[in-house]
Amino acid sequence: MNLHEQVRAYIEQNLVVFDEEIELGNDDHIFEQGFVNSLFAMKLVNYIEHDFHFQLDNEDLDIAHFSTVNRIVALIERKQQGAALHENS
Predict the structure, then answer these.
(1) Rounded to the nearest 10 degrees, what angle do helices 69-88 and 38-52 cross at?
(2) SS3 of the chain: helix, strand, coil, percent, to 5
């Protein structure tokens, strides 16, 4: 399972809309489209920090970083690259 699939699966498990026919696209805005609510944002932060083993900084907590699967994946990849650079220096 690639990173996009992993993030999408987590979001789909936490949808507030219970419709089995919903197919979440990588660019679907999960908050604007009502797929999830604001409480889910905190669950998402916890999921990212726990499953990907890094801590998000205050500047990372802009809701725009969490609005789509693609943006969440970009945030994770950026943080992982930063952690790798920090370890190698």
Answers:
(1) 30
(2) 60, 0, 40
Q: SS3 for 41?
A: helix
* Predicted TM-score of the model (pTM): 0.88
What is the domain partition of the chain in residue ranges? 3-88
CA distance 85 to 32: 35
pLDDT tens for residues 48-71?
Answer: 999 999 999 999 999 999 999 999
Q: Per the CATH hierarchy, to which homologous superfamily does domain 3-88 belong?
A: ACP-like (1.10.1200.10)
Q: How far apart are CA 44 and CA 46, in angstroms?
A: 5
